[in-house]
């Protein structure tokens, strides 16, 4: 398209990208030809933990939170981040922990039991009385 002198606006519309991206691509193409447009690979940073550290983390997670000082038996992102910080001296944000766990094959789990405090009558009453107004 650049060789055919098609306008930036037309290229952006046809490829469904921003005109800013097309202008950047055109600058690269002018400077280095078609080779300069090749992908640089996936974005983002590399994992902060090595493969061995990730394996060790998986083993620690399998031991459960009680083995690492918490009273209840559920992992949270904050707890996993704290374990990583304590063991490997590497800081992760909660979102970073989420991405890491997903890459390691972990997924969000739903509790198998319902809370003891659950009140089915209150829930039904809420659905009958309040839900219609919330729903709009």
From TrEMBL:
| Lineage top rank: taxon | Bacteria
Q: By its UniProt entry, which InterPro entries does this protein fall under?
A: Homeodomain-like_sf, Winged_HTH_dom
Cite a single Pfam family from the UniProt record.
HTH_23
Q: Which residues form the Winged helix-turn helix domain?
A: 71-128
Q: What protein does this entry describe?
A: Winged helix-turn-helix domain-containing protein
